Every structure is written in C-alpha cells, then in structure tokens.
Request: fold
Amino acid sequence: MAQQMIFDRIAVSRDIMHGKPCIKGTRVAVVQVLDLLAAGKTPAEIITLDYYPDLTEADVRACIAYASQMIQE
Reply:
C-alpha cells in the first residue's frame, strides 16, 4: 500500500481519541482494528455489523500498513 494511501486513511488529532491514530472520519482507533486482527478476526469479519460496518477492507489494510511503518521508524 502506498504511503500516501496510508495517510489518506489514517489521522492523528489530539482532539479525537486523545491523539491516538484513527481511521479518518471515524472514532475507530488503529489499535482497535489491530487488536481484532491479533485475536484472529479477518478483515472481512472486522467490517461486518458485528464490529465496524462503516470501515472497508482498505481501511483495515491501512491500519496494518500504518503499524508496520511505525515500528520501522
């Protein structure tokens, strides 16, 4: 996923969720999505009514890419 795509989907604002990285336009923190993935949920499961139906699989992939980029810095 291109770096610009990551930043088009992930936002950090101290006014939203205490500055935690979130998916733009939502109050869903990147860590919430990563926790679900770590628990064994698939991107398809995460975007269902059971979890975050307003997200897309591209949003989930952006969370993964964001986390990957952060651990490389």
